[in-house]
Design goal:
The chain has 264 residues and is of the alpha+beta class. Helices cover 24% and strands 25% of the residues. Helix 3 runs parallel beside helix 5.
Length: 264
């Protein structure tokens, strides 16, 4: 039986943080790394340092200065798809297929602005519409072994945030977002792999704001980054890890890498 490890990381500019991407790949050695918020056009993506580390298969959907997603892999990739769930041309999704038939869908859901009101804040409406389009897409995935990863920009559970009470009206943890994400989850009977291995109400965060002087001491985290899978794939998952130490690396992202391991 073969093992497969898949990592996901909102890197917040892949070129600016290439040193810690290389550090993570050398230390964690995932087979596949899905990146979000790469902030680079396709022709300027840093292929060479990744190839030197053995990640010779690269699928990218880039955008200058904003958004952008990529899949870098030691394993061959096929079926390179880019879906526009925001219907505005932003680079927020890339999907690939591995030789064993597993689909990996890498997504960067919009943050949604600061005010959780569609009428006052159009960005919030765009976020909800994006999730609704994903929900419709998910409903057509029956029978396809799929792993959905990325920065969902929603922390759904009370234990996914440092203070449920204080964040109820803060975008990323509002009831309307949590309900929308719940509908997405139900559409393909997705399994939340993070919570499969670290059941609620245990603390599980993947993001800490840059605003904190000492992110670890204040620990005002949220679980914005997720790995969901179809039930057949979830049955093959053997471990899930959050690399919290990466938040303290030189020039860190405000997100940390998460990794799930599988036996196929």
């Amino acid at each position: 039986m073969d093992t497969l490890s898949v990592a996901s990381w909102n890197i917040n500019s892949v070129r600016f943080r290439m040193d810690i991407v290389e550090k993570f790949l050398r230390e964690a050695q995932p087979d596949v790394l899905c990146l979000q918020e790469t902030k680079v056009v396709n022709q300027d993506f840093p292929h060479d340092p990744l190839r030197r580390l053995g990640y010779t298969h690269i699928a990218i959907n880039g955008q200058r200065m904003h958004h952008g997603v990529a899949v870098v892999s030691k394993l061959p990739l096929a079926e390179d798809d880019r879906l526009d769930w925001q219907a505005n041309g932003e680079a927020r999704h890339i999907g690939v297929r591995l030789a064993n038939g597993l689909r990996i869908e890498n997504v960067y859901i919009p943050a949604g602005g600061d005010v959780p009101d569609r009428e006052v804040n159009p960005k919030f409406g765009q976020k909800l519409d994006f999730i609704e389009r994903m929900t419709q897409w998910s409903a057509g995935l029956s029978g396809i072994p799929t792993l959905l990863v990325g920065d969902f920009n929603i922390a759904p559970l009370e234990s996914d945030v440092w203070s449920h009470k204080q964040l109820l009206d803060v975008v990323s943890h509002t009831p309307v977002e949590v309900e929308a994400l719940g509908r997405l989850k139900a559409a393909n009977d997705w399994v939340d792999l993070g919570r499969q291995f670290v059941p609620a109400p245990a603390r599980l965060f993947t993001w800490w704001s840059y605003r904190a002087k000492d992110w670890a001491a204040s620990d005002r985290g949220r679980r914005l980054d997720h790995m969901w899978s179809s039930r057949d794939v979830a049955a093959r998952a053997t471990a899930h890890r959050v690399h919290e130490d990466a938040r303290s690396w030189l020039k860190p992202s405000d997100h940390i890498p998460i990794v799930t391991e599988f036996a196929f």
